Amino acid sequence: MVASEANNKITLQYSNLQQRLNIKTAELHEICHQWQITELALFGSVLREDFRSDSDIDVLVSFAENAKITFFDLDTIEEQLSQLFNRSVDVVTKKSIQKSHNWIRRQNILNHFQIIYEQ
């Protein structure tokens, strides 16, 4: 796997990440469009060498300003992405991480993510 630091974000070659997760781009774009997701990024072990076949996928999302997303919607998005990636997915919003009082977690996530969808 090829990784490099760019703009304080881990950048994997998209082809390697796509191969690792078998990303179906059209389906991913459809989910993002359906929920007014403006940015979808991955963070955590999925970007590192310690990612295993039983690892979950950590997803960071941003929504359009006018999107009215509830916690139930986040659960549905999580389920849809779990089906898409064929593994467990944890979804967090970028806004919630930016507002987090846990500065270590906030810094770790915001400095180490890979965008896979951007509107």
Explain what this protein looks like in three dimensions.
The chain is of the alpha+beta class and 119 residues long. It has one domain (1-118): Beta Polymerase, domain 2 (2-Layer Sandwich), CATH 3.30.460.10. It is built from 5 helices and 6 strands; from the N terminus they run ββααββαβααβ. Mean pLDDT is 89; it is low at 1-11.
Entry summary:
The protein has about 120 residues and is α+β, with helices and mostly antiparallel strands. The protein has helices at about 15-20, 25-35, 70-85, 95-100, 105-110; strands at about 5, 10, 35-45, 55-65, 90-95, 115-119.
Main sheet strand line-up:
5-4-3-6
Structural class: alpha+beta
**Unreliable segments of 5+ consecutive residues:** 1-11
Please identify which CATH superfamily we are dealing with.
Beta Polymerase, domain 2
> Overall 3D geometry?
globular
Order of helices and strands: EEHHEEHEHHE
